[in-house]
Amino acid sequence: MLKALALPLLSSLRDSLRDLTPILAVILGFQYLVLRQPIPDLVGLLGGALLVVIGLTLFVQGLKLALFPIGETMASDFARKGSLFWLLAFAFSLGFGTTVAEPALIAVADEAALVAAEGGMIPTTDVARERYADGLRLTVAMAVGLAIVIGVLRILRGWPVHYLIIGGYLGVVLMTGIAPAEIVGIAYDSGGVTTSTITVPLVTALGIGLASSIEGRNPTVDGFGLIAFASLTPMIFVMGYGMLV
Amino acid sequence: MDLQRLLAWTEPLFGTITDVLPIIAILIGFQVMVLRRPIPNLGRVVLGLVLVVVGLACFIQGLQSALFPLGKLMAAQLTDPAFLGNTGDQEHTTAHWLDYHWVYLFAFAIGFATTIAEPSLIAVAIKAQQVSAGTIAAGGLRLAVAVGVAIGLTIGVFRIVTGTPLHYYIIAGYCVVLLQTAFAPRSIVALAYDSGGVTTSTVTVPLVAALGIGLSSNIPGRDPLLDGFGLIAFASLFPIMSVLGYAQIGAEITRLRARARTKRRQES
């Protein structure tokens, strides 16, 4: 067991080192050649880089040991169970649950509440701001839950992905035209915030697992696309929230 | 002081744990109450989850303690009017867009470099290579995405410098994506759309935001809040184009090779 773990760990360590090299090269190159200044804390930089390499290596190992297998076995178990209701309930919970506690989203929601209070959309009290931020977080989490549900339905039915994406983009353009201007920037940002580093592998494995367990679906053509929906629907929902509140 | 430093070190760990807990609760809840099946290789899965949490915490701590402060400082220095060489002189208070050449190069380089180190992209690329039985190479996909982010950020910086409206670029970009979708091999389309959402994550966003804020607060007439958002939109739009393009070029090469082979066979 130990030997079987050590070999991939070493090659993965080498990969992580290679993946980090470009960042170090850019930072050192610009610092010495363009800005012509010494690095303020070279030891600290190298220590941090080492930590990043180790962290990336462990993460990739954990990905293969846990996140990928969980997503795929659960997908095939749900497919075997054959209950559409429970599969969709699982899809919604996964999208909603991974988003609602996302630290980046909490930060964006608090910032949005400040903007809204300054713009006079809500009263400038702590209670009002907190309610606004919580409402926004719930909205984004609902949007991601719904996105995964639609994405899973798409895999089951075999709808072509680009029709849904084009429809979504049209929705974004339309909402941008009618939503209050203050909310648009926050809405666009919320799309990028939702897909965290733990959600992406899990959701990808779920999609691929479903596409491989259902007859007539091709994992490459039908398995991907869930992430794309999850970054699209929050934009539409947040602009809608801005219009209602 | 020591306690404070210790607390600062454990913060990413706790952040990652609170990030993972709801996910684990959902997984266990459905596994026990709905599927009612034991998890295969439970020991390995638990070990893997621990590795994910510890690995991500180390990764974030390393970035926050060393790379982000320096990257943000550089973004601020490169966009500083003093560095651009227009101090005091009344006639040159607003720089020509070409004066920002180092900023363009930095945007390109940092966009490429941070995307190569993005953990979620690594995950998607591993899966893509597995599922396509090697026809989509993980390394090639990641390079294509990184080039897309690099080009997107460079154009995004150009937009902030010139102050042209964001939606022109985004709508034009959507049109190109639509055209490419019509002609690209079907198997790449969903993956290409996914790679747009994957790029704006742990590594890229903080550095890109710093670049956008530095630029927009140093150029007169730009709003830091508005223009910071713009860059991230570019970083998620252009990878879609570059991944579709990567697949189109690959398909074209295969077609030309096949044609050359049949031609040779006919001649002999």
UniProtKB/TrEMBL annotation, chain A:
Q: What is this protein called?
A: DUF1538 domain-containing protein
Give TM regions: 42-63, 84-106, 136-156, 163-187, 193-211, 223-244
Listed A to Z, the keywords are: Membrane, Transmembrane, Transmembrane helix
Biological classification of the source: Bacteria, Pseudomonadati, Pseudomonadota, Gammaproteobacteria, Chromatiales
InterPro entries with a match to the protein in the record: UmpAB
Superkingdom of this protein's organism: Bacteria
TrEMBL record, chain B:
Spell out where the chain crosses the membrane.
12-35, 42-63, 102-126, 138-160, 166-184, 196-216, 228-249
Tell me where on the tree of life, at the top rank, the source sits. Bacteria
Q: Which UniProt keywords apply?
A: Membrane, Transmembrane, Transmembrane helix
**What name does this protein carry?**
DUF1538 domain-containing protein
Q: Source species, please?
A: Halochromatium glycolicum
